[in-house]
Every structure is written in structure tokens, then in C-alpha cells.
Amino acid sequence: MKKSWLVTIVSVFIMVPLLLLAVSIKDNKNQQQAINAVPAIQKLDPKSSEWGKHFPRQYDSYMQTRKSNEIKDVLKDEPALVVMWAGYGFSKDYNAPRGHFYALEDNINTLRTGAPVDPKTGPMPTACWTCKSPDVPRLIEKYGELDYYSGKWARHGGEIINPIGCADCHDNETMKLTVTRDYLKRGLDAEGSLKFADAAHQNMRSLVCAQCHAEYYFKKTEWRDDKGEKNIAAVVTYPWDNGLSAEAMEQYYDQRDFSDWTHKISKTPMLKAQHPGYEMFVTGVHGKQGLSCADCHMPYVREGGVKYSSHQVGTPLENVANTCLNCHQGTEKEFRDTVTRKLERKNELSRAAMSVLAKAHLEAGKAWELGATEEEMKPVLQDIRHAQWRWDYSIASHGSFFHAPEETLRVLGSSINKGQNARLKLRTILAKYDAVDYEAPDFSTKEMAQKIVGLPFDQLVEEKNGFLNSLKGQWFEEGKSKGIYDPKSRENMEFKTSFN
């Protein structure tokens, strides 16, 4: 009798945990099935909170990107940039990037996009919206690509009012990753090493990022509308035909005699690198080992039995234990120390290049002032163009030192060499015009640099504030009236700029 009771008690102790485990597994499976189920979402719906109703974990993690809310004025820290970008929008205002939550807000607020007063004014083309909002693929679907890329930036102000979100990267019917900007597909096919049609899921975990984190330019393209009227579209285009390296894209631009702007002081036909993160990434060890952007920037998270990808896109250093240390050995401190040393090396060379380039521009300006000829200056300007392009390419993707440290340092080194070659040639020219002892003026502060390049900073700020206090608000009201504005996309957002 005692033995049977003992068996019964032991059986209960064993069975109860097993039953609880079975219930837990079933509950977790139900949760995972709910996550994997395909909800009814409108095609290219720009309101990410609508997607979030079906995918709350992913959406909640995406909303955490608003924590990176501090404005860092890079021009204040590196005033040589004002001289290097003289005559271009970046000399007006350039801040360190913030989270996806702020992508649209920062694009609207920056001095670079100017102070339009109506849909036909302002310095920038419509293409400047392209990477900032899921409203962009919606508009391309609505109007067609060439129509979207035509006109001024302010033209679409009342239509592009939601920041980077779910519809940028996911198909509404299958939830699979999708590319919503066709210029990436064209760029891949032109480069050839990975045709878009051959892209596997792991490739897509980088390609959705490459829609925006890559080098591009605005290709002027003529087209006719339904009325037969001629228009010019500034189409976002990837310069990948010759390859993904700095030299390959430099060659691409040179072959087409393309320049983003003519430098105000040196008169150099300049190139402005955007953010070639994808190109740098594929040259580095992580890319060559088959990792994707999402592996490090969107690590998987477990909640109970549910596994999902975190959408708090940011630096992997914010979560080293769940990102880097999945593969790398050592402690978190050891890993951070290694990264710090790599960054210090990159910054040392980058600042050396900036000093050389800013002085080269000013010395070239002096040579022109003294009467140097175009024939004398042509090889100098070519060196400046190539030197600054390579500097810009190596640092504009921000994480380049981490993605491909060797390539970053190599390209920075070539930038310094070409910049110094330009200055040596300029010494000869300046000597010819009795100015061999010329020294570039002091540009050690942002204010001093902006004065040297003749930038009317106070006027630009006044005009921008006028826009921010009028037309900006009208755009969001227009979006509300059309039913496309997602109020959650600006919930608790603070207004911040580097100039107010």
C-alpha cells in the first residue's frame, strides 16, 4: 500500500511539470504562429503603427530608435569640413545621424534643405526625400518613378510625412523582405557580382539596408509627361557599373565628367560621397564571411519561446553581448578596447586628410586670385577632387572603420597622398606668382571657417526658422487631411537642431 502511494506521489511530481511545460510550449507556439501569420495590411501603407498592431514586438523595438535623440554638430567639432564643402549644402549644417525615428524630422529641419515658401522653391530636388520615408515608394507607385523625381524638394512636402518604417522593407502580403527602390536593383545588375534576381534571404537582410546606406548621385534624366511636355528628373542612381570600390566609382564619375558641385574657393569640380555603408561592408571580413547587416544591427531577441528580430537599429556596441560576442572571443571590455583603438586610428588619419584638403582648397583659391591659368590648375584640381572623394568615401558611412578597417585606412592613406600632391603642385604655382610663403587662414572654429567661405549663416537660420514656423506645419496638416499621417511617428518627439 505504501509503495503504491509512493509511486503515485512521484508520478504526480513528474507529470505536473510536464503538463505545465506542454501548456507553455503550446502557448509559445500559438504566439509564434500569430507572429508568422500574414495580416491584412494595405499595400505600401506608410503608417508603421498599423503594421505594429500585428507585430507589436518588432514595432516596439523600432520605436526605441527615438532614444538616440541628441543633436551633435559635426561642423563645430570639425570646422575644416566647412572649408572642404564650401559652396555645398553640407557647409551650412551637418549633424551626426540619429535613429530611424528622426530620419524625416532631421531632413526637414536641416539648413541643407533650405527654406522653401511654396512647392517650386528651395535649393534641393525631390530626390532628397528618397531614403527618409515609406511615403516615397507609395508616391512612386502612384505617380511613376520619373514623375516622383521631378521638381523641387518642397513639391512633396504634404505627402512625405512619415519616417522610415515597415513598408520600406516588408511586403504587405507575405511580410518577406522586399526592395522598394528600383535603383538598387539596377545598381546590382550593372555591377554584376550579385544579380538582384539571384539574391537569397540572407542577401536581402543586407539589401533592404543598401536601399539607403549606399553611395548614389542624382542622374539628370529627360522624359515627357502625358501632355507631351518635357521634364527633367533627378533620378537616384548607384555608380556601381565599374565595381564597388572607391577607385571604381571615382572612375565612373570621371568617365561621365560628373560633379556634385563646383567648390566655391578652389573651383574644383567636386564629388560628395553619401553613405557607402554597403560598399564598405562587402569588402570587409564580416561581409566576406556571409554575414548580413541585420546580423549585427538587428539581432534576434527571445521572449519566452518567441524569437524575433529587434528593430532598434543602431550600433552593435549598444548590445555587445547579443551581437559581437556571439562570434568574437574575450570579454566585453576587451572587445570595446579593440574597437576604440580602430576608431582612434581612423580618426587620426581622417583629421590629417581634412587638414590637408582644407588647406589645398584655400591655397588653390589664392592661386586663382593671383592669376593662375586653367592649364596650370587642371592637374591640381584633379588631385583635390580625387583626394576629397576618397576621404569622403572612407568616412561617410560612419561605421566604415568597423565594417572594413583595413580598407578604410587604405583609402584614407591614398586621400592624404593625393591631397599632398595637390599642395606640392600648388607651391610651384604660388612661387611662380611670388606667393611661395602664402599660409592658409585660420579655420580652427566653425564660425571662422564659415566667415572664410562667405557663408551667411545668420541669414540662413532666419530663413529656415520662417519655414519651420509656417510651411512645415502646413505639410503635416495636409497629411492628416489625406489620412496618410501616422501621429505615433512623432509621439513625444522634441524639436532639436544644431542652430537653435
Describe the fold and architecture.
The structure is a single chain. With 500 residues, this protein is mainly alpha-helical. It has one domain: Flavocytochrome C3, Chain A (Flavocytochrome C3, Chain A, domain 2, Orthogonal Bundle), CATH 1.10.1130.10. The chain contains 21 helices and six strands. Strands 1-2 form a two-stranded antiparallel ribbon. A hairpin with a 5-residue loop joins strand 1 and strand 2. The chain is globular.
Question: How are the SSEs placed, and which strands pair?
Answer:
Blueprint: H1 2-36, H2 48-52, H3 56-63, H4 74-77, H5 80-84, H6 103-109, H7 135-143, H8 145-148, H9 182-191, H10 201-210, E1 217-224, E2 230-237, H11 246-255, E3 261-262, E4 269-270, H12 277-283, H13 285-288, H14 293-297, E5 300-303, E6 306-309, H15 332-370, H16 374-395, H17 400-403, H18 405-432, H19 446-452, H20 457-468, H21 471-482
Antiparallel strand pairs: 1-2, 3-4, 5-6
